[in-house]
Write a structure and sequence with these properties.
Elements (H helix, E strand, L loop, with lengths): L1 H11 L5 E4 L11 H12 L7 E4 L2 H4 L19 H19 L23
């Protein structure tokens, strides 16, 4: 399970900071929400606040009853760009603490775009 995976990462890279994100909510099968909450509670217990961090964005993605907020998923499961921004905003303080502030200049290569949108060769 996830605990074994975290142990393995800690053994292979003892100086690394492991960031675990909780399982996100879903509207396509509301019956699984209690399972998601239980698993996320188990995952959260793995975090020590230093070398193992836990991020749970479910309160920002879903209403208190577990239904996804408008604009967070098109199909009740897969996150939208708006939801990914919520996730990025939650990760940013941890990444800034671990890696330092972002560079003034973006050093990333240009995006390649959506591979499924590329013209198909015959």
């Amino acid at each position: 399970g996830i605990a074994a995976l975290v142990r393995e990462i800690r053994e292979r890279a003892p100086a690394a900071t492991v960031v675990i994100t909780g399982i996100t909510p879903r509207d396509d099968n509301p019956a699984v929400m209690p399972v998601i909450r239980r698993v996320n509670a188990d995952i959260a217990r793995l975090a020590n606040g230093k070398s193992v961090r836990y991020v749970n964005i479910n309160d920002q993605l879903a209403l208190p009853d577990g239904r996804l907020r408008e604009g967070m998923a098109h199909d009740g499961l897969h996150l939208t760009p708006q939801a990914y921004q919520v996730w990025a905003d939650a990760l940013k303080p941890i990444l800034t603490e671990v890696l330092g502030p972002p560079s003034r200049e973006d050093q990333a290569p240009p995006p390649t775009g959506d591979p499924s949108a590329a013209p198909q060769s015959p």
